[in-house]
Amino acid sequence: MPSVRAGPPERGNMVIIEWLLDLLFPPKCPFCHRVMDRREELFCEGCQRELPWVLGRQGEQQPEFTAGCLSPLFYEGRTREAVHRFKFQNCPGYSKAFGTLMAQEVEDLWPQIAFDCVTWVPLSEKRLRKRGYDQARLLAEEVGRQLDLPVERTLEKTRHTPAQSGQEGVSRRRANVLDAYSMAEGIRVEGKTLLLVDDVVTTGSTLSECARILRTFGAIEVRCLTLARTGKK
Fold first, then answer.
1. Label partner for 42 (CA 20 to 30 A): which of 22, 119, 142, 188?
2. Strand partners for 156
3. Where does the chain have alpha helices with state H?
4. Res. 229: pLDDT tops 50
5. Residues 52-64, buried b or exposed e (16+ Cβ, 10 A)?
6. CA–CA gap between residue 98 and residue 94 (Å, rounded)
7. From the centroid of its chain, how far is CA 60?
8. SS3 breakdown of the chain: % helix, strand, coil, rounded to 5?
9. Among 50, 41, 59, which Cα is nearest to 106's?
Protein backbone atom coordinates (compact mmCIF):
# COMPACT_ATOMS: atom_id res chain seq x y z
CA MET A 1 0.00 0.00 0.00
CA PRO A 2 1.62 3.30 -1.04
CA SER A 3 2.38 5.71 1.73
CA VAL A 4 0.55 9.01 1.86
CA ARG A 5 2.93 11.93 1.77
CA ALA A 6 2.23 14.98 3.86
CA GLY A 7 1.91 18.28 2.10
CA PRO A 8 4.52 21.01 2.39
CA PRO A 9 4.88 22.17 5.99
CA GLU A 10 4.34 25.77 4.98
CA ARG A 11 0.88 24.89 3.64
CA GLY A 12 0.01 23.27 6.94
CA ASN A 13 1.10 26.42 8.72
CA MET A 14 -1.08 28.52 6.43
CA VAL A 15 -4.13 26.39 7.21
CA ILE A 16 -3.52 26.87 10.93
CA ILE A 17 -3.10 30.63 10.48
CA GLU A 18 -6.31 30.84 8.44
CA TRP A 19 -8.17 28.81 11.09
CA LEU A 20 -6.94 31.13 13.84
CA LEU A 21 -7.90 34.20 11.83
CA ASP A 22 -11.42 32.83 11.30
CA LEU A 23 -11.66 32.06 15.01
CA LEU A 24 -10.45 35.48 16.19
CA PHE A 25 -11.77 37.59 13.31
CA PRO A 26 -14.62 35.68 11.63
CA PRO A 27 -15.24 36.85 8.04
CA LYS A 28 -18.27 39.10 7.77
CA CYS A 29 -20.39 40.09 4.82
CA PRO A 30 -19.45 43.67 3.88
CA PHE A 31 -23.07 44.49 3.09
CA CYS A 32 -24.90 43.20 6.17
CA HIS A 33 -22.10 42.35 8.64
CA ARG A 34 -23.32 38.78 9.15
CA VAL A 35 -20.64 36.20 9.90
CA MET A 36 -19.98 34.02 6.83
CA ASP A 37 -19.11 30.34 6.76
CA ARG A 38 -16.05 30.65 4.55
CA ARG A 39 -13.43 33.38 4.24
CA GLU A 40 -13.31 32.99 0.45
CA GLU A 41 -16.94 34.09 0.09
CA LEU A 42 -17.36 37.70 -0.98
CA PHE A 43 -20.73 38.23 0.69
CA CYS A 44 -23.56 36.19 2.19
CA GLU A 45 -26.31 34.34 0.35
CA GLY A 46 -28.95 36.71 1.70
CA CYS A 47 -27.26 39.72 0.15
CA GLN A 48 -26.75 37.80 -3.06
CA ARG A 49 -30.55 37.65 -3.31
CA GLU A 50 -31.53 41.00 -1.79
CA LEU A 51 -28.99 43.60 -2.86
CA PRO A 52 -30.31 46.30 -5.25
CA TRP A 53 -28.67 44.88 -8.35
CA VAL A 54 -28.52 46.83 -11.58
CA LEU A 55 -29.89 44.56 -14.30
CA GLY A 56 -28.13 44.49 -17.63
CA ARG A 57 -27.45 47.91 -19.10
CA GLN A 58 -30.02 49.82 -17.02
CA GLY A 59 -27.20 51.14 -14.85
CA GLU A 60 -25.07 52.38 -17.73
CA GLN A 61 -24.74 56.15 -17.91
CA GLN A 62 -22.67 58.43 -20.13
CA PRO A 63 -21.13 61.37 -18.26
CA GLU A 64 -19.75 64.06 -20.53
CA PHE A 65 -16.32 63.33 -22.07
CA THR A 66 -16.73 59.59 -21.37
CA ALA A 67 -17.79 56.60 -23.43
CA GLY A 68 -20.01 55.30 -20.64
CA CYS A 69 -20.16 54.38 -16.96
CA LEU A 70 -21.10 51.00 -15.48
CA SER A 71 -22.26 50.22 -11.93
CA PRO A 72 -23.35 46.80 -10.62
CA LEU A 73 -25.49 48.17 -7.76
CA PHE A 74 -27.89 50.96 -6.92
CA TYR A 75 -26.82 53.23 -4.08
CA GLU A 76 -29.50 52.42 -1.55
CA GLY A 77 -30.16 50.21 1.48
CA ARG A 78 -27.34 47.84 2.36
CA THR A 79 -25.20 49.11 -0.49
CA ARG A 80 -25.28 52.66 0.84
CA GLU A 81 -24.52 51.48 4.38
CA ALA A 82 -21.60 49.34 3.18
CA VAL A 83 -20.08 52.16 1.14
CA HIS A 84 -20.37 54.45 4.17
CA ARG A 85 -18.46 51.93 6.33
CA PHE A 86 -15.88 51.47 3.56
CA LYS A 87 -15.17 55.19 3.36
CA PHE A 88 -15.72 56.48 6.87
CA GLN A 89 -15.38 53.58 9.32
CA ASN A 90 -11.94 52.24 8.39
CA CYS A 91 -13.01 49.20 6.36
CA PRO A 92 -10.50 49.16 3.46
CA GLY A 93 -10.80 45.36 3.23
CA TYR A 94 -14.22 45.79 1.60
CA SER A 95 -12.38 46.67 -1.60
CA LYS A 96 -11.87 42.98 -2.47
CA ALA A 97 -15.58 42.19 -2.65
CA PHE A 98 -16.52 45.56 -4.18
CA GLY A 99 -13.74 45.47 -6.77
CA THR A 100 -14.63 41.93 -7.79
CA LEU A 101 -18.26 42.90 -8.45
CA MET A 102 -17.09 45.88 -10.49
CA ALA A 103 -14.69 43.80 -12.57
CA GLN A 104 -17.43 41.28 -13.29
CA GLU A 105 -19.60 44.11 -14.62
CA VAL A 106 -16.87 45.05 -17.11
CA GLU A 107 -16.41 41.43 -18.17
CA ASP A 108 -20.15 41.04 -18.71
CA LEU A 109 -20.94 44.28 -20.54
CA TRP A 110 -17.67 45.51 -22.08
CA PRO A 111 -15.84 42.30 -23.02
CA GLN A 112 -14.81 43.76 -26.38
CA ILE A 113 -13.02 46.81 -24.96
CA ALA A 114 -9.21 46.61 -24.89
CA PHE A 115 -8.27 48.82 -21.95
CA ASP A 116 -4.68 49.96 -21.58
CA CYS A 117 -4.92 50.53 -17.84
CA VAL A 118 -7.14 51.19 -14.84
CA THR A 119 -6.97 54.53 -13.05
CA TRP A 120 -9.04 56.28 -10.38
CA VAL A 121 -10.55 59.53 -9.14
CA PRO A 122 -8.08 60.62 -6.42
CA LEU A 123 -8.76 62.12 -3.01
CA SER A 124 -7.32 65.46 -1.97
CA GLU A 125 -4.24 65.33 0.28
CA LYS A 126 -6.30 66.73 3.14
CA ARG A 127 -8.96 64.03 2.89
CA LEU A 128 -6.36 61.30 2.33
CA ARG A 129 -4.53 62.27 5.53
CA LYS A 130 -7.78 62.19 7.49
CA ARG A 131 -9.03 58.88 6.06
CA GLY A 132 -5.70 57.09 5.81
CA TYR A 133 -6.43 55.48 2.45
CA ASP A 134 -7.94 56.36 -0.91
CA GLN A 135 -10.99 54.14 -1.38
CA ALA A 136 -11.12 54.68 -5.16
CA ARG A 137 -7.50 53.62 -5.48
CA LEU A 138 -8.19 50.41 -3.53
CA LEU A 139 -11.11 49.65 -5.85
CA ALA A 140 -8.99 50.35 -8.93
CA GLU A 141 -6.23 48.05 -7.70
CA GLU A 142 -8.68 45.21 -7.13
CA VAL A 143 -10.34 45.78 -10.52
CA GLY A 144 -6.91 45.73 -12.14
CA ARG A 145 -6.06 42.43 -10.45
CA GLN A 146 -9.34 40.86 -11.52
CA LEU A 147 -9.06 42.04 -15.14
CA ASP A 148 -5.30 41.51 -15.36
CA LEU A 149 -4.72 45.16 -16.26
CA PRO A 150 -2.04 47.59 -15.06
CA VAL A 151 -3.18 50.20 -12.56
CA GLU A 152 -1.73 53.69 -13.02
CA ARG A 153 -2.07 56.92 -11.10
CA THR A 154 -2.90 59.47 -13.80
CA LEU A 155 -4.58 62.29 -11.85
CA GLU A 156 -4.06 64.31 -8.72
CA LYS A 157 -6.48 66.49 -6.86
CA THR A 158 -4.98 69.93 -6.61
CA ARG A 159 -7.80 71.70 -4.80
CA HIS A 160 -9.64 70.40 -1.75
CA THR A 161 -13.40 70.62 -2.31
CA PRO A 162 -16.46 70.05 -0.16
CA ALA A 163 -17.97 66.58 -0.56
CA GLN A 164 -20.10 66.24 -3.68
CA SER A 165 -22.83 64.64 -1.60
CA GLY A 166 -23.41 68.00 0.06
CA GLN A 167 -23.91 69.84 -3.24
CA GLU A 168 -27.46 70.04 -4.54
CA GLY A 169 -28.07 70.15 -8.27
CA VAL A 170 -25.96 69.38 -11.31
CA SER A 171 -24.65 72.93 -11.76
CA ARG A 172 -23.36 73.17 -8.19
CA ARG A 173 -21.68 69.79 -8.44
CA ARG A 174 -19.98 70.76 -11.69
CA ALA A 175 -18.78 74.05 -10.23
CA ASN A 176 -17.51 72.28 -7.12
CA VAL A 177 -15.06 70.07 -9.04
CA LEU A 178 -14.15 72.42 -11.91
CA ASP A 179 -10.34 72.62 -12.19
CA ALA A 180 -9.95 70.61 -8.98
CA TYR A 181 -7.91 67.89 -10.76
CA SER A 182 -4.81 67.86 -12.93
CA MET A 183 -2.54 65.34 -14.62
CA ALA A 184 -0.02 63.71 -12.31
CA GLU A 185 3.56 64.74 -13.01
CA GLY A 186 5.36 62.66 -15.61
CA ILE A 187 2.25 60.72 -16.68
CA ARG A 188 1.42 60.22 -20.35
CA VAL A 189 -1.97 59.01 -21.54
CA GLU A 190 -1.75 59.77 -25.26
CA GLY A 191 -3.42 57.11 -27.36
CA LYS A 192 -4.69 55.11 -24.37
CA THR A 193 -8.10 53.69 -23.57
CA LEU A 194 -8.62 54.15 -19.83
CA LEU A 195 -10.95 52.63 -17.23
CA LEU A 196 -11.63 55.34 -14.63
CA VAL A 197 -12.81 54.05 -11.23
CA ASP A 198 -14.74 55.71 -8.40
CA ASP A 199 -17.03 54.45 -5.64
CA VAL A 200 -20.39 56.08 -6.45
CA VAL A 201 -21.77 58.08 -9.37
CA THR A 202 -24.65 60.54 -8.91
CA THR A 203 -24.72 63.21 -11.61
CA GLY A 204 -21.38 62.17 -13.12
CA SER A 205 -19.84 65.62 -12.61
CA THR A 206 -16.66 64.34 -10.97
CA LEU A 207 -16.14 61.62 -13.57
CA SER A 208 -16.77 64.14 -16.34
CA GLU A 209 -14.19 66.56 -15.00
CA CYS A 210 -11.57 63.83 -14.65
CA ALA A 211 -12.35 62.44 -18.10
CA ARG A 212 -12.12 65.94 -19.59
CA ILE A 213 -8.56 66.28 -18.33
CA LEU A 214 -7.55 62.81 -19.52
CA ARG A 215 -9.01 63.46 -22.97
CA THR A 216 -7.35 66.89 -23.12
CA PHE A 217 -3.99 65.19 -22.57
CA GLY A 218 -4.56 62.71 -25.37
CA ALA A 219 -6.48 59.72 -24.05
CA ILE A 220 -8.44 58.15 -26.92
CA GLU A 221 -11.31 56.98 -24.73
CA VAL A 222 -12.32 57.08 -21.07
CA ARG A 223 -14.85 54.61 -19.71
CA CYS A 224 -15.94 54.76 -16.10
CA LEU A 225 -16.75 52.15 -13.48
CA THR A 226 -18.26 52.62 -10.01
CA LEU A 227 -19.60 50.23 -7.42
CA ALA A 228 -22.97 51.99 -7.25
CA ARG A 229 -25.13 54.60 -8.89
CA THR A 230 -27.94 56.73 -7.50
CA GLY A 231 -31.43 56.74 -8.94
CA LYS A 232 -33.50 53.79 -10.05
CA LYS A 233 -35.09 53.19 -13.44
1. 119
2. 182
3. 9-24, 45-50, 77-88, 95-109, 125-131, 135-147, 170-177, 205-216
4. yes
5. eebeeeebbbebe
6. 6
7. 16
8. 40, 15, 40
9. 59
